[in-house]
Amino acid sequence: MLSPIGPYSSRVSSVADTPKGSLASSSEAELVGGAPSPGAELEGVIDVLSALACGEMSAFERMAADSRMAPTLADKAALAGMAAAEFDHFRSLCARLRELGIDPEESMQPFVEPLDTFHDLTAPKDWLEGLVKAYVGDGIARDFYREVSAYMDARSRDLVREVLADMGQAAFAVDRVRAAIDANPAIAGRLAGWARRLVGEAMTQAQQVAVDREAIVRLLSTQAADLSELGRLFERIIAAHDERMRALGLNS
Phi/psi at 35 (nearest 5 deg)? Predict the structure, then answer.
C-alpha cells in the first residue's frame, strides 16, 4: 500500500489560502445521504478508494507470495487467511466505486505503476523482512488513509475504516519479529535499516503520485479547519510509526 504522507505533509502550508470548512460540518451539512458532494470532495474520495483498492490487491498478492517463505505450516495458514481477507477488502472497495459510477479498473490505473515500482524496489529477501514490510510500510499508509477517512462521506468513511481494521497482522508480525530478535539480537540492526529504507522508498513514490494526483490534497485543504489540525494529523501518523518500531524492538 502506498502512503502519500510525505508530499502531503510537506505541502500543508500551501492550503493556507484555500477556503476552510469545519470538521464537524463536513460530515453533517456538506456530505448528504451517504454520498460525497461534487467537486474536490468527490475526486478526493474516488482517489482514496482507488488507491486503497490497488493497495489491497497488492497486499493480497504479497501475502500469498510471502507465505511461501513462512517457516511453519501454521504461519503459512495464518498468512493465507490474511491474504483472503485483503482480497475481500479489494472487492468491497471496487463495489463502492461502482456505486459512485466509477470504473474501478480505470480509477486504479494511476496508482498501479508507483505501487509496482515501490514493491519492486523493496522486495524482501527473507521472511522477517516481509513481516517488517507489511507491518511498518503498510502501517504508515493505513494510518494516513484512516486519518483522511474523517473527511469523507459516511458510507465511504465506514468502508475505509473497515478495510483498514487490524485483522491480527500487527500481533502476528510483532510476535514473530520479536521472537527472532530475542533468538539473534544481531539481526535488529539489519531490520531497523530495512524499515527506514521502506519508509524512504514509500515517500519517494508517493511524491510522484502527488505530482500527478492532487485530489486528496484538495480534499484535505477543503475540509480541514485550519493548518494546526493538519499539523496534528501528521504528528499522529509519525507518532504511530515510532510506536510500531518500538513494538518490534527496533530503532526508528
Answer: -125, 140
CB 198 within 8 Å of CB 137: yes
pLDDT confidence band for 27 (50 / 70 / 90): very low
Tens of pLDDT along 141-173? Answer: 888 888 889 889 999 999 999 999 888 888 999
pTM for the structure as a whole: 0.78
C-alpha distances in angstroms, 136 versus 1, 177, 216? 11, 12, 22
What are the CA-CA distances from residue 187 to residues 122, 193, 194 (Å)? 18, 10, 11
The one-letter amino acid code at 200 reads G
CA distances from 173 to 51, 55, 169 (A): 24, 19, 6
Planar angle of CA 174, 68, 79, nearest 5 degrees: 45
The answer regarding whether domain 36-248 maps to CATH 1.20.1260.10 reads yes
